[in-house]
Specification:
Length: about 425
């Protein structure tokens, strides 16, 4: 039934609609890579549940299939959030996600911790929530906890996971890629006394090892789904335009284009080693496209040469939209803040948008790339054939991602992984 509706969208040459609703820009964490950290001074806003219910109804009416509630920290509004998830499910939206920075995992040695987590898990389990993400930005617990400002968070997370699993919720761990993933990546910056080529080669190796340690670490913690958010650094100009402040110009997330290319290459190369052990949401097709976008200047440092293939334009502003907590208005995404599209309920969808590749926001870039060949094939079959002839590996990669997504039940966070089906990857 679900897939039929999605197929209907695709036949109409549209990506299934996705809406990201920023419930609040309040946050209690102090992450250096984010403009919404608790220490930033700006007037904070939250959307009222009534306002959000109207937006949800309009999204269901317009045929949107996916809804994300983001923040700030969405779990600061846990009770309202649960009600809104129920509302979205009742309105017929099947893919509902939300997440947390995990602040409530601190203090796991205190009396009553298990009860508290049980209550939170029970409350979420009683909704049609499909995916619940928990952020984790380093394979080193003390580094992650220092970045967030919550001591003891990681051991609490480890204690809490079986409780969530018992309630039928399989949280997904969300890595915001940054320079603090491992000890080696922390000091990995260009230096005057090291040849740049040499630095790039170390950079690739250090991130490759960092991704490996991160995957091993989260498997040991008990996670069964993992996702990666690509680094979001802004220039001053972009920062003043962005309506979603989850980015910064801090060096921890700021990378040169050639570093980004190697970063994506390191992740692309690491994923196959772990695909049978944990459900890895990041599609290699999308990483492949990002590697192209960031150029070929460092090919000699990559063990697997990737031939040229242009990325598919992002569907932000075409089929995917963002609602800001600041004014309740609609934007093409969290970054194109100069394009206020007004009240979502009044928005007319015309299936058109500019060919935008301005940022690497995975929430929009990953599904845009995965849906790209289907939409391309329907609107311009010859164009797709040309693309495949120019780069036959692209199609192989895309089919492999699709087979993997099927083996992972499209990352259904209410189901345990089927390791038997994942074993072939
Ligand atoms: S990254 Fe998330 S948890 Fe950290 S300050 Fe920003 S909104 Fe809060
Ligand atoms: S590429 Fe980035 S800036 Fe462009 S529409 Fe997508 S999310 Fe927005």
């Amino acid at each position: 039934m679900l897939s039929l509706k999605i197929l209907e969208n695709i036949i109409e040459k549209k990506a299934p609609g996705q809406l990201v609703i920023q419930l609040t820009d309040r946050c209690n964490a102090c992450c250096p890579q984010c403009g919404m950290r608790v220490t930033e001074k700006f007037p904070r806003s939250s959307l009222s549940p009534d306002e959000v219910r109207k937006i949800i109804d309009a999204a269901a009416e317009k045929g949107f299939r996916a809804l994300s509630f983001t923040g700030g920290e969405p779990m600061l509004m846990a009770d309202e959030l649960a009600g809104l998830i129920r509302h979205a499910g009742a309105a017929g939206i099947p893919f509902i996600r939300t997440g947390t920075n995990g602040f409530f995992f601190s203090g796991s040695h205190e009396k009553g911790f298990e009860k508290k987590i049980s209550r939170i898990a029970e409350n979420l389990a009683d909704t049609p929530l499909r995916n619940f993400w928990i952020s984790l930005d380093s394979a080193l617990p003390e580094v992650h906890e220092r970045m967030r400002g919550f001591p003891g968070l990681v051991s609490g997370m480890e204690k809490a996971l079986p409780i969530f699993h018992d309630h039928g919720i399989r949280p997904s761990v969300n890595l915001g890629i940054n320079r603090n993933i491992s000890e080696k990546t922390m000091g990995c910056l260009p230096r005057d006394d090291v040849a740049f080529d040499h630095f790039l080669s170390d950079f690739y190796e250090n991130f490759r090892e960092a991704f490996r340690s991160f995957y091993r670490f989260v498997i040991d913690l008990g996670f069964t789904i993992v996702n990666s958010c690509y680094p979001m650094s802004y220039s001053e100009a972009d920062r003043s335009e962005a309506v979603y402040a989850a980015g910064s110009d801090n060096i921890v997330v700021k990378f040169l284009p050639v570093e980004k290319k190697l970063l994506f290459q390191a992740l692309y190369d690491t994923i196959p080693e772990f695909r049978s052990q944990i459900r890895i949401f990041s599609p290699r097709t999308s990483l492949y496209a990002l590697i192209q976008q960031y150029g070929n200047s460092s090919e000699k440092h990559s063990p697997e040469r990737v031939p040229a293939s242009a990325p598919y334009p992002c569907r932000g502003g075409t089929d995917f939209f963002y609602i800001s907590a600041k004014d309740g208005n609609t934007y093409p995404c969290g970054y194109r803040g100069n394009e206020n599209l007004g009240n979502f309920c009044d928005l007319t969808l015309n299936g058109q948008g500019p060919d935008c590749l301005r940022c690497d926001w995975e929430c929009f870039r990953d599904p845009s790339e995965l849906l790209g060949p289907l939409l391309h094939g329907l609107s311009n079959p010859l164009g797709l054939l040309r693309k495949i002839r120019h780069d036959p590996d692209y199609l192989r990669l895309w089919f492999e991602d699709m087979r993997y997504y099927l083996a992972c039940d499209f990352f259904d966070g209410r189901k345990a992984p089927d390791y038997r089906r994942m074993a072939g990857f």
